[in-house]
């Protein structure tokens, strides 16, 4: 953003014109020219300390990556004129560029003290406030913008969103209603400018967003009336029909809901939500016989729809289930669908259905081996591949029910039938993995990869298996075929935010006792999540301009729960486990233990150990050299680009470099572990591992009340978990001696709470 000074103090016309050219150069990213004009002003002894020019020079230097110089110039400008809103604005921009949002807000507020009606500063302040979820501040800033620029559509929308996020639905709806009326009047008066199609789309999105506010307020009847009143104005017909059908169900207007859901199914037969809505509208969701009649009717109406044939398998039993399953499986085997097992896997929660599936497919195999038909009554022979895919399914089936021996027999028969089918080798690798033989799993997955070395999925899967076998260098080499040439694969995978690889790396390094490397990968994943959160910054103003309001609200809510993602949980768990280990076993103690162990080794064992250490050291040195070469090449490229292109900005990564040895040598491991635990406590409380990890940290920090809280939360999630049982015993033993030393009134309180905990356990 470019500062927008209202007045430029004490500059004559010539210098004033130069200053305006500095602003223009910054806007157009012509940084070298901007510095040249700034030098012309500052070289004049009369204006050597001109505050705004110093600030602008600092802003340009920051864009060129010269951050320390930038701060020096901006602070000089502020010292020369503390009442300059331009200097405070620029200082806020610098703070924002370093993601110091609280400091940026302070700077913007100081700027507004001296120019309270500066639109640009108010806009930037509002963006920082919504980015940090300062909703009260955001509402106040948007209100001020609304008063200053009531003719701008974004002023109305931003003001309404502020009230919506604060759950003042009535005010948000009224503001949008007033905006819609204004838009209609403007459209009637408009003779040129915006196209009609654009206006129609924007009005439609505004109406749907209004309706979303009404629904969230709980006024379903009002939301339905609003939607029907503006039926003809809404362009997104799918969203309209889905929403109005949902309202009819909620208001128990089942006939209208049935009509709409049948219409939706006609347009898309592979959407499960439509079938669920139809069964609810007919009030037969708990009546299997009626549901079966409905699906038979739909099957006749849409014979090519796969979901119509699949859904009845979920609620039918015994003979009905078998009658429906048989043609469904035969059709998939004839087509050669590798996804058949994945499709039917949810049925394995029902033991009786597992038996039926097994008997059915085994019967197919017997008949296919005997007479190449699915049954003796069949007139036509089955395709030659039918037996192959039946073997494949049985291998998956027996692997699911933990019958490894039979699963291997089935997959080997399939391989004998068609040795060149890649899916068979990947299936065999997965069977070995589930049985615990990771070496055999890697071997088979590598054989599958070699059949098609250009397949990125197979290479990635093979690399993942190698990571499980602690073969990091081989896995990295394989993935290096798909990374950018001239850079270290590790660095490029980190740059691409390849988090599945980094979480696997972290687990592997943890198993190998490479604590620093494990922590480095976990922190890289943590940084990815912070970067994803930062990436939303550009959308705060974009979505208001493009009227993608419903998507914008969903984005904000997604970002609020981003740390609940499984990738973050995996990385956080590894990091916490490593930090706990480092707390219990500081590196100095580990070094002395290793020295004592070496003294007890035989000469041959000691020689092997030293060879292993030498190879590991050499491999680490090679990786460091490759990383250094890549970094040097990248810096050289940036310098060349900077010298050749005036319009390019260069923001160096302000994040501290992650050095494994330094990470492992931390003096406060529990404090570092808490940084990973806090997001889990708020966003992954449903996972029992969260509370187990919390207990382990709090027990080492000697926090009995927090230990008790962790125990109680874990019991609510799963009172029969083995680890929780162990912690219960451990906690009871600890408190039996510890409770006497607690200050009053904690001993009595802890006694009462412990009785509740163990009473809860007995009841459950």
Automatic annotation (TrEMBL):
UniProt keyword annotations, A-Z: Repeat, TPR repeat
The annotated regions of Basic residues compositional bias extend over 609-618
Question: What are the Polar residues biased-composition ranges?
Answer: 590-603
TPR repeats sit at: 85-118
Chain intervals for the UniProt region annotation (Disordered): 590-655
Keyword Mitochondrion in the entry? The reply is no
SMART domains named in the record: TPR
Name under which the protein is recorded: N-alpha-acetyltransferase 15, NatA auxiliary subunit
Taxonomy of the source species: Eukaryota, Metazoa, Ecdysozoa, Arthropoda, Hexapoda
């Amino acid at each position: 953003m470019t500062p927008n000074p209202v007045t430029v103090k004490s500059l004559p016309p010539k210098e004033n014109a130069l200053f305006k050219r500095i602003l223009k150069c910054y806007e157009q990213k012509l940084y070298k020219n901007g510095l040249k004009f700034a030098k012309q002003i500052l070289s004049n002894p009369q204006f050597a300390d001109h505050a705004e020019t110093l600030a602008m020079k600092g802003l340009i230097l920051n864009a060129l990556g010269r951050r320390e110089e930038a701060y020096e110039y901006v602070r000089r400008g502020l010292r020369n004129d503390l009442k300059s809103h331009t200097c405070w604005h620029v200082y806020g921009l610098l703070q924002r560029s370093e993601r110091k949002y609280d400091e940026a807000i302070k700077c913007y507020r100081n700027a507004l003290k001296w120019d309270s009606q500066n639109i640009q500063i108010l806009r930037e302040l509002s963006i920082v406030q919504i980015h940090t979820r300062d909703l009260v501040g955001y509402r106040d800033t948007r209100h001020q913008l609304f008063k200053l620029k009531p003719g701008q559509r974004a002023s109305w929308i931003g003001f309404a969103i502020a009230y919506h996020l604060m759950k003042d639905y009535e005010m948000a709806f009224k503001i949008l209603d007033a905006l819609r009326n204004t838009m209609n009047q403007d459209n009637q008066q408009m003779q040129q400018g915006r196209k009609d199609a654009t206006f129609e789309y924007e009005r439609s999105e505004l109406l749907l967003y209004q309706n979303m506010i009404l629904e969230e307020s709980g006024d379903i009847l009002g939301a339905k009336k609003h939607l029907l009143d503006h039926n003809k104005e809404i362009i997104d017909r799918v969203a309209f029909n889905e929403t109005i059908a949902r309202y009819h169900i909620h208001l128990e207007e089942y006939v209208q809901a049935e009509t709409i859901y049948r219409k939706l199914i006609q347009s898309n037969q592979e959407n499960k939500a439509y079938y669920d809505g139809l069964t609810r509208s007919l009030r037969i969701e708990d009546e299997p016989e009626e549901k079966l009649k409905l699906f038979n009717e739909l099957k006749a109406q849409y014979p090519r729809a796969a979901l119509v044939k699949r859904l009845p398998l979920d609620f039918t039993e015994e003979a009905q289930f078998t009658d429906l399953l048989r043609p469904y499986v035969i059709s998939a085997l004839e087509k050669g669908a590798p996804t058949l097992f994945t499709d039917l896997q949810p049925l394995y929660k029902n033991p009786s259905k597992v038996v039926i599936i097994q008997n059915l497919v085994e019967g197919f195999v017997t008949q296919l081996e005997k007479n190449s038909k699915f049954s003796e009554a069949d007139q036509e022979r089955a395709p030659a591949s039918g037996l192959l895919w039946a073997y494949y399914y049985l291998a998956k089936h027996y692997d699911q029910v933990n019958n490894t021996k039979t699963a291997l027999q089935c997959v080997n028969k399939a391989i004998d039938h068609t040795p060149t089918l890649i899916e068979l080798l990947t299936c065999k690798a997965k069977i070995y993995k589930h049985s615990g033989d990771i070496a055999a799993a890697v071997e088979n997955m590598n054989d599958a990869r070699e059949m098609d070395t250009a397949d990125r999925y197979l290479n990635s899967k093979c690399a993942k298996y190698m990571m499980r076998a602690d073969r990091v260098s081989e896995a990295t080499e394989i993935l290096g075929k798909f990374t950018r040439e001239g850079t270290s694969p590790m660095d490029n995978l980190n740059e691409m935010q390849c988090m599945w690889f980094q979480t696997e790396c972290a687990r592997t390094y943890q198993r190998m006792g490479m604590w620093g490397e494990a922590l480095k990968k976990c922190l890289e994943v943590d940084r990815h999540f912070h970067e994803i959160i930062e990436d939303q910054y550009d959308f705060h103003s974009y979505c208001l301009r493009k009227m993608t309001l419903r998507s914008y609200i969903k984005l904000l809510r997604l970002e609020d729960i981003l740390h609940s993602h499984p990738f973050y949980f995996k990385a956080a768990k590894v990091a916490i486990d490593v930090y706990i280990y480092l707390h219990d076993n500081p590196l100095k103690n580990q070094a002395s233990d290793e020295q004592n162990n070496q003294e007890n080794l035989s000469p041959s064992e000691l020689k092997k150990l030293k060879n292993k250490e030498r190879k590991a050291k050499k491999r680490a040195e090679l990786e460091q050299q490759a990383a250094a070469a890549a970094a040097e090449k990248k810096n050289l490229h940036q310098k060349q680009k900077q010298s050749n292109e005036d319009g390019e900005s260069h923001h160096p990564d302000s994040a501290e470099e992650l050095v494994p040895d330094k990470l492992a040598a931390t003096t406060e491991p529990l404090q570092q572990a808490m940084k990973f635990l806090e997001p889990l406590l708020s966003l992954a409380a449903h996972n029992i591992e969260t509370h187990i990890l919390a207990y382990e940290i709090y027990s080492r920090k000697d926090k009995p009340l927090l230990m008790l809280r962790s125990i109680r939360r874990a019991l609510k999630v799963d009172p029969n978990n083995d680890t929780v049982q162990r912690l219960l015993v451990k906690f009871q033993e600890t408190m039996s001696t510890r409770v006497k030393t607690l200050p009053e009134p904690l001993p009595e309180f802890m006694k009462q709470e412990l009785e509740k905990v163990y009473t809860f356990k007995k009841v459950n």
